[in-house]
Amino acid sequence: MEIEIQAGTEAGVPAPETAQERTVGTTLLEVSDLAVEFRTDDGTVRAVDGLSYRVEAGRTLALVGESGCGKSVSSLAVMGLLPATAHVVAGQVRYRGDDLLAMPRTRHRAHCGRHVAMVFQDALAALNPVHTVGYQLTESLRARAGMSRRESRRRAVELLDLVKVPNAAQRIDEYPHQFSGGMRQRVMIASALAMDPDVLIADEPTTALDVTVQAQVMRLLAEIQAERQMGLVLITHDLGVVAGVADDVTVMYAGRAVERSAVRDLYAAPAHPYTRSLLRSVPRLGTRDDGHDDAHDGARRGRLPVVPGRPPSPGHVPSGCPFHPRCDMARDVCATDRPPLAEVAAGRSSACHFADELLGGDRG
Amino acid sequence: MAEEGPKDDVVLEVRDLAKSYPVRSGVVLKRTVGQVQAVDGVSLTLRRGRTLGLVGESGSGKSTLARVLVGIEKPTRGTVLVDGEDVSTMSRAARRELRRSVQMVFQDPYTSLNPRMSVGDIVAEPFRIHPDAVPAGGRRQAVAELLELVGLDPDHVNRYPHQFSGGQRQRIGIARALAVKPRVLVCDEPVSALDVSVQGQVINLLADLQDELGLSYLFIAHDLAVVRHIADEVAVMYLGRVVEQGVDRDVYDASGHPYTRALLSAVPVPDPAAQADDEVLLLDGDPPSPADPPSGCRFHTRCWLARQLASGTGPEAADAVETDGGPRVPRRCATDDPVLVPLGRHDAHAAACHFVGAATAVSAARRPDPATVPDPATVPDPRGS
Ligand SMILES: Nc1ncnc2c1ncn2[C@@H]1O[C@H](COP(=O)(O)OP(=O)(O)OP(=O)(O)O)[C@@H](O)[C@H]1O
Ligand SMILES: Nc1ncnc2c1ncn2[C@@H]1O[C@H](COP(=O)(O)OP(=O)(O)O)[C@@H](O)[C@H]1O
Ligand code: SF4
Ligand code: SF4
Ligand SMILES: [Mg+2]
Ligand SMILES: [Mg+2]
């Protein structure tokens, strides 16, 4: 079944009273200089350090980086859902101009519940195994939208249809264990879409899934984003996954943005050595990088390109450029001077002393 | 590498292997109401010093096959041969020796290591089951060497799993598997839970260890791109069956089965232009339940080629049938179970499809023309307008 959905006008459901027009390019969410610290046994550590990004209606932003670089923590800060040991120490999060962080926490969360929704990284485990999928969807609709039982059930079926769960009207009465991983992720997306949010943040929505299901879920998110002109933030560690769906990419390292580019620019020529390494590490179909393509000759294949070592943990971020111990372009200055995130080409920023070399400048 | 006869080259072989589990219903008195055919008639050959990649979607039976191979579970039917010897007819002592020589690396480095055991104890654990692998006095030294071998600091032997990253934990899992000097490693999705940036580190480590120790690998993954980097031969599984197998180059560049082609199309390409041109999603929905596999060709409910043939102008279209709730497909697809048939170039290349010819013909361009693949779920172009 094909359902046409216009922002805020789904059949039978009143448009949320505060729904506003989404014109492509309108800034919906703006994160500026966000810094988040954790209190740990070893003292206070900074997990997010001066992160800025902007989410526009009708556009998809990919937030990319290795495990531990602060993708989830920064998103939880945006949502007002940081754990008790964490606090925002600097920065603003503006939703349509209003600073969410300046609001009391309850109002911040209520605002997000309505306009900025998130699919959490461990979403697959988040469904309660003792309740049916329908119960979990309708309870949240009744609580959040004040719908009646009937109304919420109809809406829940609609939402499951929207995320292409086959036979939604029947499957709504099944339990989470009767759903595959991909179908459970669709349910979580449906739940996040319940209030027709302006912005959807999806934290590694496909990391636990097969490539085939990953492709389906990515396509689904892209479709819904386009139909509703939402702002979509896709969080991932895999640059391969977002190439086809993102408009803009922010690459994070050790709690900071190190590159910001439009998707085509970034894949054509990364402006930061870390981005380049991440891109090279994506396994590709066409190549075996080894000049050895006959499996009968017994020759050994070459090595896959990797990012050597591993990312620093908060509290142990190296001096100078945080990436310098792993960077194949590092020089003396990199160990001492921290490169700021600066514009290196029209619409592109990079935090590397030698970005112009990467972009084909003729220095060095 | 020395030329060896094709037979003594084979270190592990399975013939017509099947494993089914009872499906039970009821809470108190569980009654068996059916069988899940997790693995249903699989034959594979693993050669010394080589890597066989095993690919398929979730639920296709990869882990079940792995568990049978390492002896965690008994097959329902079929034979496992190690060095040409049938495992089921071996003496107990010989079977123990076999268990030692075939070890497993598990999928999830976060849950497969006991959080309360130190790294040293984890790596030494297999010595308890196989005490004769290394004499008691030499085990500390052996553990230190194993950690060194997989690129970990031997001084970290007293640390606990939570003090390591995912990639490092997977190295610990590999060290543990190598402790009793196996000849075969069954690696069940060893990199699926890791960041892409770290996947390459683990794959490179496995390749180095293979060179150094002459190991043979069965390498399981759901991503054909990952497998391409390590496998010499590839087998593709769907609902408990192998639907295509062959050397790496044949399976990737001249795939004969529509399912293989669909898996290839799902591999994310790190190139926005390529993805925009190539917005084809060949596989829709989930695989059907192996407790109730479809009639005829098990893939017919999701097969793009069958749908294409049924809506074309050829003789298959005239003879097409409506399947219950499913798409229209050529009659043979709905009624006859295709067997693996050899395909041209190398005799090792085989696929199980009634229309392999048609599949390979479209295969010239690696992925089929989107216009010829009707798929109701993919009608609206997500990037459009
Ligand atoms: N102990 C069991 N009892 C009942 N059914 C089982 C059991 N183990 C596996 N199955 C079923 O057998 C089928 C194959 O499972 P298996 O775990 O081998 O798949 P897989 O290919 O490894 O999938 P994945 O990619 O999810 O790891 C599945 O349908 C699964 O539900
Ligand atoms: N509850 C916590 N206490 C202390 N440190 C934490 C906590 N949660 C996350 N961190 C640290 O913050 C950093 C960023 O974490 P996270 O945002 O989850 O990374 P990502 O989502 O990019 O993988 C990590 O190094 C992590 O160890
Ligand atoms: S500043 Fe130096 S170390 Fe940092 S990314 Fe650029 S070249 Fe590498
Ligand atoms: S036999 Fe028919 S259904 Fe099966 S793979 Fe071939 S074309 Fe598809
Ligand atoms: Mg995270
Ligand atoms: Mg498995």
TrEMBL record, chain A:
<keyword id="KW-1003">Cell membrane</keyword>
<feature type="region of interest" description="Disordered">
    <location>
        <begin position="284"/>
        <end position="320"/>
    </location>
</feature>
<keyword id="KW-0472">Membrane</keyword>
<dbReference type="GO" id="GO:0005524">
    <property type="term" value="F:ATP binding"/>
</dbReference>
<dbReference type="Pfam" id="PF00005">
    <property type="entry name" value="ABC_tran"/>
</dbReference>
<dbReference type="InterPro" id="IPR027417">
    <property type="entry name" value="P-loop_NTPase"/>
</dbReference>
<dbReference type="InterPro" id="IPR003439">
    <property type="entry name" value="ABC_transporter-like_ATP-bd"/>
</dbReference>
<dbReference type="Pfam" id="PF08352">
    <property type="entry name" value="oligo_HPY"/>
</dbReference>
<keyword id="KW-0067">ATP-binding</keyword>
<keyword id="KW-0813">Transport</keyword>
<feature type="domain" description="ABC transporter">
    <location>
        <begin position="29"/>
        <end position="279"/>
    </location>
</feature>
<feature type="compositionally biased region" description="Basic and acidic residues">
    <location>
        <begin position="286"/>
        <end position="300"/>
    </location>
</feature>
<keyword id="KW-0547">Nucleotide-binding</keyword>
<protein>
    <submittedName>
        <fullName>ABC transporter ATP-binding protein</fullName>
    </submittedName>
</protein>
<comment type="similarity">
    <text>Belongs to the ABC transporter superfamily.</text>
</comment>
<dbReference type="InterPro" id="IPR050388">
    <property type="entry name" value="ABC_Ni/Peptide_Import"/>
</dbReference>
<dbReference type="InterPro" id="IPR017871">
    <property type="entry name" value="ABC_transporter-like_CS"/>
</dbReference>
<feature type="region of interest" description="Disordered">
    <location>
        <begin position="1"/>
        <end position="21"/>
    </location>
</feature>
<dbReference type="InterPro" id="IPR003593">
    <property type="entry name" value="AAA+_ATPase"/>
</dbReference>
<dbReference type="InterPro" id="IPR013563">
    <property type="entry name" value="Oligopep_ABC_C"/>
</dbReference>
Automatic annotation (TrEMBL), chain B:
<comment type="similarity">
    <text>Belongs to the ABC transporter superfamily.</text>
</comment>
<dbReference type="InterPro" id="IPR027417">
    <property type="entry name" value="P-loop_NTPase"/>
</dbReference>
<dbReference type="InterPro" id="IPR003439">
    <property type="entry name" value="ABC_transporter-like_ATP-bd"/>
</dbReference>
<feature type="region of interest" description="Disordered">
    <location>
        <begin position="364"/>
        <end position="385"/>
    </location>
</feature>
<dbReference type="Pfam" id="PF08352">
    <property type="entry name" value="oligo_HPY"/>
</dbReference>
<dbReference type="Pfam" id="PF00005">
    <property type="entry name" value="ABC_tran"/>
</dbReference>
<keyword id="KW-0067">ATP-binding</keyword>
<feature type="domain" description="ABC transporter">
    <location>
        <begin position="12"/>
        <end position="264"/>
    </location>
</feature>
<keyword id="KW-0547">Nucleotide-binding</keyword>
<dbReference type="InterPro" id="IPR017871">
    <property type="entry name" value="ABC_transporter-like_CS"/>
</dbReference>
<dbReference type="InterPro" id="IPR050319">
    <property type="entry name" value="ABC_transp_ATP-bind"/>
</dbReference>
<dbReference type="GO" id="GO:0005524">
    <property type="term" value="F:ATP binding"/>
</dbReference>
<dbReference type="InterPro" id="IPR013563">
    <property type="entry name" value="Oligopep_ABC_C"/>
</dbReference>
<dbReference type="InterPro" id="IPR003593">
    <property type="entry name" value="AAA+_ATPase"/>
</dbReference>
<protein>
    <submittedName>
        <fullName>ABC transporter ATP-binding protein</fullName>
    </submittedName>
</protein>
<keyword id="KW-0813">Transport</keyword>
